Amino acid sequence: MDSKDIKDKTDEIFEKAKIGAGIAATAVGDFAKSAGEKAVNVKNTASVNFHIRSLNNELNDLYIKLGKTAYDIHSNIETESIPAEIINTINLTLEEIEKFKAQLVELRGMTTCSKCGKESPNVSEFCPACGEKLG
Ligand SMILES: [Zn+2]
After folding, report:
1. Domain that holds residue 66
2. What is this structure's pTM?
């Protein structure tokens, strides 16, 4: 593989990473709409779970692309760094997954302690585990 091939491959990965980021943004948009209706029901939870699954699939694809890029780079004499855009897209996707997970906890009528991460009913004023003020 010559350096032009690597550049083409990298460009291709960048394009796919951008598409992945677009899907993540769309999923968030869809969820924001449904959350606005404030209907706490099974369908909503299922919808959030669906988005989390989709994002996890995107994430797995990104990890595969990252691994392939690393392999290509190491197989070649020329050394290049791992494309920052893939890392950025992975970080973005991880953040979106965390947001959806937080929404899921909320839909179950629970809240997550910002200090220790323990879940408790969202009527609780203080965390039963560490005593942190909730809200
Ligand atoms: Zn706590």
Report:
1. 3-109
2. 0.53
